[in-house]
């Protein structure tokens, strides 16, 4: 290091040396600027990471992390022996996968249809309305969903009108997962269509005109021009949604589920909250949390590598 | 369009318009039903008579909210939280994004900070260790438990960093020539030209903090300390469903909750008014943010 500085100094003239000095003061100012943020990051992100030690202990709050007894992998072994966890894991993946798949389809189809609306006013109004649910909390939307899907809600009134049997959407284990997926698609399809709409409007209109002249109808143009032009962004977003396979949406599930639908509605996050935090099984809850964090991390890194490989873009 | 003259194309056009308008209504009407419910009498609500127009129009529910001390206390806590978070988030975002937008040649150690930020996004200790840290800092039941854990918004820092990288170098060089120090350059050069991007992350912060109910749920042990969304969540909006499904069917308390449905609806309506007020801004800047900043080349 010293040799290098000396070497540099030997051939720099006075002017650049002055500049160098300025950069050095800048350097310490930069470190100072980073400091407050890094302190918060240390306290609220990095110190909790050491909390994972709890997963290998029988953590007792009164004794603290230093005083609690180490039990090795006991909690992890226990976790894999519980029949619960397999079910919870399966629920999480099914719900998350359903949301990603149907959400993507919904957003793509909606963006293609919306692009056909020529009336500026109508298009803007529709966009205003369909983006709205994205900005609302699941606390609010759960009230809306319960209102719609309860036994005497509008959906069941419609079913009755057509002479169909009423369905207990919120209390039935077979209907609760479709309800979660459906209402999440409802909340997000509009907002998710923004990216796809941007891709569609970027297509050269000349392509469509040429195809029309050659006799291609609307379906053919969507299939051969619009969709292929959206393919890169669809691929990218599909890859990047991979890590979300373990995030089935705590807020939504928590606000909609009841003990009746724990069997199909319980996901990893709600399970950790209920057993770990409410049940004060801190060590066991942390063990389940870590399990999720590690798989999540592997998924994010793989998604990033895949994105780099297939789309020339990356997350980080 | 060439084909707009043919009949089949015209029918197609009508079909597409119908589908799109229907989808718009599917998004709007369930929300509108809550508004109508809030202006209806509780008898009408209990009888399920309210559709899109209030039945037995009344503003009684809103009068009751006016006198509801807990509602306004929670509203105040949420407002306070949003402002504190906004200030802290924005200060930390610009302070961190600026040095990080420098190359490693200019800012030695830049990559170490960057890796620390990215790793904090990849891996987390999880719900319980974070809770214990907040608890051990004696932050439970204080407004700071809602603000400080989210002080550093890593995603926003990276978004603004990418924006700063795109700022022309000549602007900064000119400021250096004039003898400006890094802080002056940040405040007088970078912040003014990044206002749209900063507005985007500011709105991320506002919406996220306003809508979050979970921190309130775990960090506040007393209902009187609940922020608004946690308070509304605690009103047991599922109670009617539980009643219908046979659980606790005879509980008097539950019966009362059912007749409170229009009051709860009114509380929900008031709770989303702040978001509706800034909605034009949300539409403008969120969309900008999602298209520009979501991923990098």
Automatic annotation (TrEMBL), chain A:
Q: Transmembrane stretches, by residue range?
A: 33-56, 94-115, 135-155, 230-250, 282-303
Query: Which GO biological process entries does UniProt record here?
Result: transmembrane transport
Location of the ABC transmembrane type-1 domain: 89-303
Give one Pfam family. BPD_transp_1
Per UniProt, subcellular location reads as: Cell membrane
Q: Which InterPro entries match?
A: MetI-like, MetI-like_sf, UgpAE/MalFG_permease
Keyword annotations for this protein, in alphabetical order, are: Cell membrane, Membrane, Transmembrane, Transmembrane helix, Transport
An example GO CC term for this entry is: plasma membrane
Would I find Lyase among this entry's keywords?
A: no
**Its topology with respect to the membrane?**
Multi-pass membrane protein
Keyword Lipid biosynthesis listed? The answer is no
PROSITE patterns from the entry?
ABC_TM1
Gene3D superfamilies named among the record's database cross-references:
MetI-like (1.10.3720.10)
Give the family per the record.
Answer: Belongs to the binding-protein-dependent transport system permease family.
Q: What is this protein called?
A: Aldouronate transport system permease protein
Lineage per the UniProt record: Bacteria, Bacillati, Bacillota, Bacilli, Bacillales
TrEMBL record, chain B:
Membrane spanning segments where? 12-32, 82-100, 112-134, 146-165, 185-207, 265-282
The protein here is known as: Aldouronate transport system permease protein
What's in the keyword line of the UniProt record?
Answer: Cell membrane, Membrane, Transmembrane, Transmembrane helix, Transport
Superkingdom, natural source: Bacteria
Q: Which Pfam families match?
A: BPD_transp_1 (PF00528)
Q: Major place of localization? A: membrane
**Localization per Swiss-Prot or TrEMBL:** Cell membrane
Provenance organism:
Neobacillus niacini
What family, per the record? Answer: Belongs to the binding-protein-dependent transport system permease family.
Q: Does the keyword Ion transport apply?
A: no
InterPro entries named among the record's database cross-references:
MetI-like (IPR000515), MetI-like_sf (IPR035906)
CDD domains in UniProt? TM_PBP2
Q: What is its membrane topology?
A: Multi-pass membrane protein
Q: Give the SUPFAM superfamilies listed for this entry.
A: MetI-like
| GO biological process terms on file | transmembrane transport
GO cellular component terms attached to this protein's record? plasma membrane
Q: What sequence ranges are listed for the domain ABC transmembrane type-1? A: 71-282
- The question of whether Disulfide bond is a record keyword is answered with no
